[in-house]
Structure of MarR family transcriptional regulator:
Amino acid sequence: MHARDQELLSSAALTAFKLNGQFLELAEHLARPAGVTATWWQVLGAVLGSPQSVSAIAREMGITRQAVQRTADVLAERGLAEYHDNPAHRRAKLVAVTPEGRAAISAINPHHAEHAAELAAVMGADQLAEAVAALRKLSEALDALDLSD
């Protein structure tokens, strides 16, 4: 391994950690007026298109199944999500958004659009699209690493 490769890996990781914090701060800022947290928004957003299992949500979000389960339980208690039977797996229920959950997400959209437009204006829409593509490629490359012991 070359020293430059090591420096790039470290720099990429530190930048990603900083970005994670920045995105979480932005998400909390956007979600708070709608009465939800960034984590609630993330889980609800994962099931807006169709109900998903807790494991599928966790894989998509890159967090533990247990963390998603705790959040889904809170969302169900608050009436923002509900559990449906899963035809593919008897014990693994599907998490589905309720009309109340959909309304909470809709309440976020105007401010979300504002901040998206502001970011695109600051960075340039094409450059922002290139950054997203590079981040996806980096994520795919990390998925391909052999992390077995």
